[in-house]
């Protein structure tokens, strides 16, 4: 038996760091939304009880270092499942890009194995398990749009934002989330994103207020490490983007636009500059779809 599960990327509409906690994690406040750039995770039942994994991107680890492998192992051990699984990841989301590709693969593996192994766990139970793999995994279990707090694992569901186009551009460098957080001095952050205003923009489906409320406190850290991030942001703004922000710890930058003519202009400007450019929609908007 084999099932295929979609593992969509996320973007941060806001990312705020409130404090560094004694356990080493940062206390965050983030508005996140899923977009329709997705990996495909194929899960094939193995009667011999083994867990094996292959990924279309050869540089992604295929052992316990892979978040999807971790997810399968955790679920098998916790619920003493005798069956195994072969996981195949068709990688479409750029790696180490601030788009939560690995976390989304883990979440898709948990959702898919819940079906394949007949575990009948609730989404909340899967999210709780996912939090042991990574802070972004619980959000990826639900998808849609949400406010994430704590270390990112506490999820409050939000309504659908105003529909728009999202143009993603990733410079040809990877960024380690741990390095970026490591260089952040939480107590010295001068400008925090207006999270409350973003929540209002979403509930009112107010596109221009959403664009005005974008903010990410990690941007300055990554901009120092990767100057190309600023160049991409500047290019997007000069090409008429309504809102521009770096996602997560970067280096992917996204532009929000409503008019299709602007999409073409921004896409063409970026294509001369970076290879990885994607035009996507947010999932869970009026004309998007929700995760199954
Ligand atoms: P986040 O936004 O959650 O910080 P990211 O998008 O910045 O994540 P990922 O693409 O998840 O980063 O990759 C981060 C690291 O995780 C990579 O260095 C990679 O080797 C490792 N990794 C483990 N499992 C996966 C996976 N299934 N897909 C991609 N990377 C993975």
From TrEMBL:
Keywords: ATP-binding, Isoprene biosynthesis, Kinase, Nucleotide-binding, Transferase. Pathway: Isoprenoid biosynthesis; isopentenyl diphosphate biosynthesis via DXP pathway; isopentenyl diphosphate from 1-deoxy-D-xylulose 5-phosphate: step 3/6. Its EC number is 2.7.1.148. It catalyses: 4-CDP-2-C-methyl-D-erythritol + ATP = 4-CDP-2-C-methyl-D-erythritol 2-phosphate + ADP + H(+). Residues 198-273 form the GHMP kinase C-terminal domain. The active site is at 10, 136. GO terms for molecular function: 4-(cytidine 5'-diphospho)-2-C-methyl-D-erythritol kinase activity; ATP binding. ATP binds at residues 94-104. One of its GO terms (biological process) is terpenoid biosynthetic process. Catalyzes the phosphorylation of the position 2 hydroxy group of 4-diphosphocytidyl-2C-methyl-D-erythritol. This is 4-diphosphocytidyl-2-C-methyl-D-erythritol kinase.
